[in-house]
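Below is how a single chain appears once it has passed through the pipeline. First comes the sequence as given, then the structure the pipeline wrote out for it. We keep one example in the README because the format questions we get most often are answered faster by looking than by reading.
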Amino acid sequence: MTAALGWVGARARWILLIGAFAGLALPGAASFLRPALPFFVAMVYALAMLRIDPVAVLRGFARPAHLARLTALVLAMLVVSPVVAFFAARALGLGPEFEAALLYTLAAPPIASSAAMCLIVGFDGRRALELTVLSSLVMPVTGPALAGLLLGDALALDPLALGLRMAAMIFGGFAAAMILRRIMGPARIAANAPQLDGLAALGFLLFIMPLFDGVGPSIVALPGLSLAFLALSALLVLGAIALGLRLAKTREAGGALGAVWGTRSVAIYLAALPPDPLFTLYVALYQLPMAAIAMVFRRRG
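Resulting structure:
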């Protein structure tokens, strides 16, 4: 089992693609797993945060100037960018499905594994980690507030209930990670890093599959909208990283900022809100550009 987990961990970059195609090829399994999506979201947070030293992260937050810079970036990510994107979509007449997709995406925190993904491709993993943790802490407040303000009656859930559901998933995952760290200890976690990578990859596989519940028929029925959703996803994910690389002074810093800006945990809204076939289609297709990051932005050297 240990060797098998290590083997899986070494091939973690392929797991997202495998999960996506498995969800499409096995619609029965995707449908069966869909009710457990909130648990899988919390599990992904737990597995990603298990490898993090919380004392080291908090020590970085203790520096006022550094925390102020991080806070400004987080507010730009979680408040300014979704508002600008929402009204840009409305001005362009893209329709309510695109307005909601952009709002939910850019009001979501970076994916829990953003720091690990940055390390794979040679970006600044520590900066990605700090922005991910801080974003995850404030998002259950900022995200529902923006959704309630901008979507109004179109929001299918009371903002307070939405925030509580998302907070339960995020902080439940954080708490589980801290308990596991206490039980295992830092030394054992470090010694079993490849096996934990494999366990995290299998967790992602379980997380990705239910995102594709009902997506196959939706793609067949709505090919034009599906292509538009995929193009938007590629622009948000790969375009953000490419822009960060172009504007920043160093590849490491620009790639990290672009990665956390583009790879958002939009599935947390899917898990918290009532079922919506169009939003499900968008969230599923959004996973595909994220699966391509390690292939498009290879580590140099």
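Residues 40 and 207 are 5 Å apart (CA to CA).

See the next section for the split statistics.
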